[in-house]
Write a structure and sequence with these properties.
alpha+beta; 2 domains; four-stranded antiparallel β-sheet; three-stranded antiparallel β-sheet; 11 strands; globular
Length: 213
């Protein structure tokens, strides 16, 4: 799991632009030009956003009828701070627009707004083509547009490795399913922190090393 670390730089100039609760890279860049106190406030706000909008248990993500994803377990989640329950076997539709280059990897995140289960791919405007699963997971930190700004719960994410030909969502099955050229591998992550990119930062020194004492 990737841990975000901020870089606190005191007396370095005026504050930078507002920050979101999702890092813009797998390790957070300098979050501000104002100092450690502002870093601490940004961290606090990011952690509160995460706590108010995430699942609180093991959803048991698995394949759903060849092409889609579902949660095998009912689970409690927090939606803007209110605890609710997502029913077991809620389907997250993979759609038909996403493609992955043969033998390479793609990735998608899962969110739930209390009525609609959404699976959002890293991109649908071009074929995804991460060389390794690790590279696909690292990209979560830069995919800020996939996560709604409010009124959602972060559920987890899935990674997919295409088979011997271009993989197309809705046409080619996930691994273990039947249809088209099924994916070689599909991994399911019950991780509402989205590989550590959603939630609070560790506060770091100017070099970006986490402060431990």
């Amino acid at each position: 799991m990737t841990i975000k670390i901020s870089k606190s730089v005191d007396n370095a100039g005026p504050p930078g632009p507002p920050q979101s609760g999702i890092a813009t890279s797998t390790t957070a860049p300098v979050l501000n030009n104002g100092g450690a106190i502002r870093d601490l406030l940004i961290n606090y706000n990011a952690q509160i956003l995460y706590e108010r909008n995430s699942s609180k248990g093991n959803t048991g993500l698995v394949i759903d009828t060849n092409f889609d994803v579902k949660n095998a377990n009912a689970v409690t989640y927090s939606l803007s701070g209110v605890l609710k329950t997502i029913s077991a076997n809620t389907s997250f539709n993979t759609g038909t627009a996403a493609t992955i280059t043969a033998t390479l990897w793609g990735i998608a995140i899962l969110t739930y707004d209390g009525s609609t289960a959404t699976l959002a791919w890293a991109t649908t405007s071009a074929a995804m083509g991460y060389a390794t699963e690790a590279a696909a997971k690292a990209a979560l930190g830069t995919i800020t547009s996939l996560c709604p700004t409010s009124g959602f719960a972060s559920i987890g994410y899935v990674t997919v490795q295409a088979g011997a030909s271009l993989w197309t969502a809705g046409t080619d099955a996930l691994a273990g399913g039947a249809g088209g050229t099924a994916a070689t591998t599909t991994n399911y992550y019950d991780d509402p922190s989205l590989n550590g990119t959603f939630g609070g930062y560790q506060i770091g020194n100017p070099a970006g090393t986490a402060i431990t004492q």
